[in-house]
From TrEMBL:
PROSITE patterns: RESPONSE_REGULATORY. It comes from the Archaea. Signal peptide: none annotated. SUPFAM superfamilies: CheY-like. Residues 13-72 form the Response regulatory domain. GO terms for biological process: phosphorelay signal transduction system. This is Response regulatory domain-containing protein. The lineage of its organism: Archaea, Methanobacteriati, Methanobacteriota, Stenosarchaea group, Halobacteria.
Length: 72
């Protein structure tokens, strides 16, 4: 089995669950500084995260995350 060509790979979807807007900005800056260019989708509480994961409410067309970051 061969690996897909770089042009065939899809972007990894990242979901960040964090209530503090300052922490969200910091995480996005750290990712950018590390050269991680994936889009980071942000929700601010667990209910919103579950809506996104189950594609309810305003998230019916939201991409499902490959990675979920939950900050404490």
């Amino acid at each position: 089995m061969t690996s897909p060509e770089p042009s065939e790979r899809r972007a990894v979807e990242i979901l960040l669950i964090e209530a503090n807007h300052g922490d969200v900005r910091l995480i996005k800056e750290l990712f950018a500084d590390a050269g991680i260019t994936n889009e980071i989708h942000v929700v601010y509480d667990g209910d919103e995260a579950l809506d996104l994961i189950h594609q309810h409410g305003g998230y019916t067309d939201a991409p499902l995350p490959d990675i979920i970051l939950l900050l404490c």
